[in-house]
Design brief:
Length: 359
């Protein structure tokens, strides 16, 4: 009895462990499926092969993966950097020069390549076209070496990295002697600066400052009304400060010597001359002083070479004549005050223009 029981229980154990749902046994070959979902295809021990052959245009999938495509990817060689792009310098470029470099790489399988920067930095202003491998742009005006790593990637995700450098050289923008009229040139980043001699201004010292109006004149009005102010103006309705513009049909009228007409240029300028016209037979300007200020608070008078306040001439009785006065010493100012000193008629009355260069 005891041996029977032992046999039965061993048999039950055997059933549980070896319980195949489906099994085909050919000598040495087993195809079996378990209830749990495992499928086993086993070839025999003596060099048994397993063949899976899809039909015409058929595919062997494992999961969703086409096995032939998978092997293509596995076997794909990484791209190869070409001879025209050896490790190292891609060239030396002068500031402002056009940079146009074709990075050369091929894929042994001939798939389409794309390019990516994986390290370092391009010169500012130079960009990589990721689809074509072109480096395009404009070289910066600076002495520098830019090192960067590029990865070229094929359609199978196989890649090769390469490090390159681009050298840039600062261009001497002073070489062409751009500063006119005795100006001194200083080379700069992508540009130059001119230190002009006294009478000249502008980027290339081409402007005669004493001929360059700031635009107070009535027909120009670059200086807005709000930038003109009068101190002790005469009368109430017309002849306000903003009417003191050269060529205006009216003008500014002051009470007397303590009056002034102020023009705010908006920024600091190299001021070199002024023009005035009287207002009418009754309101004129014979002589005047000029005050100059950097900040609208502290004013100093425009002086002669000797350091005394310069007395300028208006047109006096010839009230409609334009009287231009060029400074003996150019002044840096933002605010200019016209201070009447003598006049004919009852009150000083006049219209103005100012000549200056931008700094
Ligand atoms: C499938 O087979 C594996 C490996 O032999 C086994 O660990 C797993 O338990 C089996 N799964 C089922 C559901 O039988
Ligand atoms: C880069 O330069 C090349 C050659 O001059 C030109 O054909 C290409 O269109 C340029 N690419 C870009 C993105 O500017
Ligand atoms: C400046 O001073 C010199 C000598 O002191 C004199 O000859 C000249 O007339 C003065 N010029 C002005 C504009 O005052
Ligand atoms: C103003 O006129 C007087 C007399 O004609 C002249 O001597 C003087 O030099 C003039 N001043 C200026 C600054 O032009
Ligand atoms: Ca490849
Ligand atoms: Ca330069």
């Amino acid at each position: 009895m005891a041996t029977e029981l032992l046999f039965l229980s061993l048999f039950a154990l055997f059933l549980r462990t070896e319980a195949s749902f489906f099994e085909v046994r050919y000598p040495s070959v087993v195809v079996s499926a378990e209830t749990g979902g495992n499928l086993t295809i086993a070839a025999g021990p003596n060099g048994g092969n397993i063949y899976m052959t899809p039909g015409d245009r058929g595919t062997v999938f494992i999961g969703r993966t086409d096995m032939l495509k998978l092997f293509e990817v596995v076997n794909s060689q990484p791209p190869i950097w070409g001879q025209k792009a050896p490790y190292g310098p891609l060239g030396t470029f002068l500031g402002g020069d056009v940079v146009s470099i074709q990075l050369m790489a091929i894929d042994p399988e001939g798939t389409h390549l794309r390019f990516e920067k994986v390290s370092g930095a391009f010169p500012p202003g130079v960009y990589l076209d990721k689809a074509t491998g072109e480096l395009n742009g404009t070289a910066p005006d600076v002495d520098a070496t830019y090192e960067f790593g590029i990865r070229v990637i094929d359609e199978h995700g196989k890649y090769a990295d390469q490090t390159f450098t681009i050298d840039t050289r600062e261009r001497d923008q002073c070489k062409s002697s751009p500063c006119l009229n005795g100006g001194t040139c200083t080379d700069d980043f992508g540009t130059y600066k001119c230190q002009c001699t006294t009478k000249y201004g502008g980027k290339t010292c081409n402007i005669v400052c004493a001929s360059q109006t700031v635009g107070v004149a009535f027909n120009v009005k670059k200086i807005p009304d709000a930038q003109m102010a009068g101190h002790y103006s005469y009368g109430s309705s017309d002849h306000k400060a903003f009417e003191g513009r050269l060529g205006s049909s009216t003008g500014w009228i002051g009470e007397g010597k303590s009056s002034w007409l102020q023009v705010d240029l908006g920024n600091l300028r190299n001021v070199q001359a002024v023009s005035t016209q009287g207002y009418s037979t009754t309101y004129t300007l014979s002589t005047f002083y000029l005050d100059c200020s950097l900040d609208g608070n502290k004013f100093t008078n425009v002086q002669t070479v000797n350091g005394t306040a310069e007395l300028f001439n208006g047109s006096g009785k010839q009230y409609s004549t334009t009287a231009k006065q060029v400074f003996a010493v150019p002044q840096t100012c933002r605010y200019i005050r016209f201070k009447p000193n003598t006049w004919t008629g009852t009150h000083p009355g006049f219209r103005v223009e100012i000549f200056a260069c931008e700094l």
